[in-house]
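Case study.
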Amino acid sequence: MATELFEKQKTIDLRKKHIGPSCKVFFSHDPIKIVRARGQYMYNEKDEKYLDCINNVAHVGHSHPAVVSAGFKQMELLNTNSRFLHDNLVQYAQRLQATLPDKLSVCYFVNSGSEANDLALRLARQYTGHKDIITLDNAYHGHVSSLIEISPYKYKQLADKEQNPHVHVALSPDVYRGKYREDHSDPATAYADNVKDIIDKAHGNGHKIAAFIAESLQSCGGQVIPPAGYFQKVAQHVRKAGGIFIADEVQVGFGRVGTHFWAFQLQGDDFVPDIVTMGKPIGNGHPMSCVVTTREVAEGFTSSGMEYFNTFGGNPVSCAIGMAVLDVIEQENLQSNALDVGTYLTELLEQQKGKHPLVGDIRGRGLFVGVELVKDRAKRTPATAEAQDVIYRLKEQRILLSADGPHRNVLKFKPPMCFSKEDAELAVEKIDQILTELETVLGMGLSSTAVSENGSSKRKVSSEENGHHAHANGKGHYSQPPTAKSSKRIRT
Amino acid sequence: MATELFEKQKTIDLRKKHIGPSCKVFFSHDPIKIVRARGQYMYNEKDEKYLDCINNVAHVGHSHPAVVSAGFKQMELLNTNSRFLHDNLVQYAQRLQATLPDKLSVCYFVNSGSEANDLALRLARQYTGHKDIITLDNAYHGHVSSLIEISPYKYKQLADKEQNPHVHVALSPDVYRGKYREDHSDPATAYADNVKDIIDKAHGNGHKIAAFIAESLQSCGGQVIPPAGYFQKVAQHVRKAGGIFIADEVQVGFGRVGTHFWAFQLQGDDFVPDIVTMGKPIGNGHPMSCVVTTREVAEGFTSSGMEYFNTFGGNPVSCAIGMAVLDVIEQENLQSNALDVGTYLTELLEQQKGKHPLVGDIRGRGLFVGVELVKDRAKRTPATAEAQDVIYRLKEQRILLSADGPHRNVLKFKPPMCFSKEDAELAVEKIDQILTELETVLGMGLSSTAVSENGSSKRKVSSEENGHHAHANGKGHYSQPPTAKSSKRIRT
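After joint prediction, the assembly is written out as follows.
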């Protein structure tokens, strides 16, 4: 068992003193101190166990011994830059390539999803000679300057937001809450046509499209699953305009969706992006990521005459760790576990939808699942405060879940891939209890699903968002109306 | 001894197939395959030993056991994001802070020097409300989009370079080759006045300065040591304009300069930057870095309303490794070793200057040393091809050195900090031999230092630059005239 160096309060005080105040903790009124973790479980300083339903970085399980051992062995031997030949680099590239369509054959190793997406933009702009980027509404692609610009999820938070004229925002292909819904005859075409309209308008203004970028499934954007065929149609429009298609798999890749290794493959075998970016799960927590593209795009980038060098990217340790992650996914059948457990979890949640009026929509692929809470099923009124209350109460039960999306009312499941059916049962059982309690307080029943906004706002509602801000108490006593502050979002 | 998975040629072939062609190797005609390293030595697949004079990332020595062990122990226990409280994060921040002036007290942990410098720009722009950045000529600050824009070292390579109107390039404060030289009565003021002129001109055009950014010692820019007092004067001008001062210590920090822990401290105790960025040596090769700033700037960043989250930044493993690096620097007296050995190395090189007309200038601080080669001491004509030949021939002698600067004629010493006097003697002895051979071929002697450019260009001169491009043979037989291609630069 791990020991604690400082008393918890001292840790909090030092954090306030020395860590940037923009860097937020979970559950700020009573943040959690975690000292060790294993598999899908995390342990606090009192050795109390938490079930982790949100950490898509600890992909094959926290501190997986095979991954740790691979990292250790390589660290002992050599950790240097990619200006020297090393077998790990090429072997790892070869193995990643084997998971992808043939034409995605050239890798650039970098250190984070942000570095990967930034490089993807550089590749696209250099290859096409164009400048403009089309991004989706509510998208988040990373924290460096060039990515904040294409992340409405982030820049909409700014008081003095300034939209880059070379960035265009397309409709999020959300068939539950978006413009074209499940009752539309062809939402894939309708959403793709919106991209086409944007291209036409940009052309009219003398702009040229370098790329369309989207997460294969929008994560922060609210666990959105685009209708199949949407990417093919968008790619057609974008390529016709001389642009390319970037699939951001930073949050959703590496077998999480269960049926496929990459989430873009959900769209069908006839869809191949021009660039795929990877991140979070790739090294099970080790800082690394990758951009994979076609020979054509890679050659186009070279033609600029500018070399690309990344100090840490592709070092032998990162590559050894990356290969160990691929090994574990394979040896422990984690992709098929994601499918089995994810399907089971979705079924259990669907049953909750039958019981609880607060549950508006259940959507998921493998162990990427969203539960959208609403105050009114007909109007689909986001149950923002309720979602925050659920995650706070779950925390009291030692279950870690988060809420996200533009209205922060979507409970996000994206646990380590070793998540079990028993874990799913436990989480859903607790959610069931909490929703029952909440609905009792709110006077909601399936017979009274059309609870009006006025009706529920009579009660004082917590403004918490993933526990960011002060919460009166953990027992679900509502204390404050939603404030402007509560519109800040969190990404895990 | 490490084993090889692939034959060297197979490694090369796989690299060509799967790694972005913009990612260059050292010595492309016969790249080196390194399989293990320890201290300041690297070993190829035949277990042949190379002396590493260039790796400022393996700061406390390659694969230092204390650093490896710290990483391993923490990896076994926990590696997660900074949304949970963890003692490593706050303890490490506290320890870094203790190396800095008091007012630099707030840390943001990120994954690379590029992420650090990009965040520094975001902090500066948000805090000041201004947009424009002043950078130095020949500067390199990183590979993400926002940093290519402020890196003349990189963007000058582009065929279709497009200067961002919000970026202004100041003179490099190079007293050997710059506008104001060692014979100038006050180069610090003269170079700072150039920054003032830029500010005035920007104001005249309605632009406002967010920040001045400079490496505390320019590395890729040619191992440039700004005259003392220059930063103070620049800071005065920039702050008067409402901007802030960013000191980039990514290449030169952590005791390398010997007399001080941070290179900006060479300017005098009265100088404190508003932001310091760290990188390469911070984790001895582990992908991590840090931005440290003042409480004021940090609060200004928060006021935007936008949270900052970095998935891997500040994880417990990175922090454990960072602390182990600080421990080793202290326990092994590496800062004082850098001073002793660096001084000794500089003395040995000064002796070479007395012997070899090719040596135009020796400059250094601790284990950051530059040897500028010239074909003509009076005209200071850059000996570009000769510098490349020196590093190629050193490679044959199993000594790794690189050449950089705008004319790629500056030999760069920036070895692991455990570099010894014996290592210095060996490297200088080999350089002596090589320069003697070269000068014989070139017909140069100290009595004939004014060898004309025509005189030397009668010979076919190698176009190699750090071995990037094909080299006819390793024995120093000049094969090709310099080509446009040879103007590409390399950063190690």
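Observations recorded in class. Chain B has two domains: 8-60+334-487, 65-331. Confidence is low (pLDDT under 50) at residues 448-492 of chain B. We will return to this complex in the next lecture.
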